[in-house]
Amino acid sequence: MTSGWDFLAAYSNPVPADVAGALDALGVEVRREVSRSGSAEYLARCPAHLVRTGRTDRHPSFWVNSVNGAFVCFSCGYSGPFVVLVADVLGVEREEAVRWIARRGVYRTTATDEAPPPVPEPAVTEAYLALFDPPPEHALAERRLTVEAAAEYGVLWDLRTDRWILPIREPDGRLIGWQEKGEGHFRNCPDRVRKSLTLFGPLGAETILLVESPLDAVRIAALGVPGAVAAFGAHVSEAQMQLIRRSPCRRLILALDNDTAGNGARDRLYEAWRPRGLPIAYYDYAGADGKDPGDSTDEQILRGIARAYRPWRR
Ligand SMILES: [Zn+2]
Known about the structure:
Blueprint: H1 4-9, E1 13-16, H2 19-25, E2 30-36, E3 39-44, H3 49-53, E4 62-65, E5 71-73, E6 79-80, H4 82-90, H5 94-103, E7 107-110, H6 126-129, H7 137-142, H8 147-152, E8 156-158, E9 163-169, E10 175-182, E11 185-189, E12 207-211, H9 214-222, E13 228-230, H10 238-246, E14 251-254, H11 260-273, E15 280-282, H12 298-306
Parallel strand pairs: 12-13, 12-14, 14-15
Antiparallel strand pairs: 1-7, 2-3, 3-4, 4-5, 5-6, 8-9, 9-10, 10-11
The structure holds zinc ion.
Zinc ion (ZN) is lined by residues 46, 48-49, 52, 57, 62, 73, 75-76, 78.
């Protein structure tokens, strides 16, 4: 005759009915809950982080799904079905972990260990965006950004993944997506967000500095220089240039990346738009280390702007 325990063990992945309660009982404090239709994702400090990396999970990146019980740490990669978490945290064998889950009352089981990682599917809404945090101090310091500049450009941070979140808004302010940027990671969300129809950063300054990368615009703002906007890449569209032209802009400084794509785009913009009456100057990379303002020192950026030149003068 099959006992209850054997019956349970036949299922490889028992999940407690109350995942949040089980986490609490395991001493894994839920720091945040992201609700979705029919399920939730719980954010906590990764309980395996110290053992796996030698460091504690300072910025919570450990997520647990309320329905399938699957967990994943986006920082150290610790992941698996809920029963594995229980076994690891309690330091017991799998069978004991199954019993622990069963003792918590009603349980569900799923027949596979291969539970999908609980990656929240982003919905492009202000409510979802509001779940991100302001960038932490260490991230700002690393890129020489300020709290004020980050706030002005609406820059946020994903604690789950330690990535920048760079909101993409239509010229009227409507949110249409964002870019995720982290170490070795770059993603547009949604994939095909129409970022070529808008610019990153406020238009309104008399002198506009056009850069490729959103964080470069924020970097320039952090130096106290107003008017930096990003085109989200070297390709600057007609629509983006029209936005600049319709703004109070009286002078445009092109500070695209100092590489083949950036310089080519810069020259094409000059040829196309100078005849249309838009005063255009080139940011001066002379003496700068990096290929974009973000890679340069404060002095190099300020000098590059101050020495912006009209190409025919060279
Ligand atoms: Zn971890």
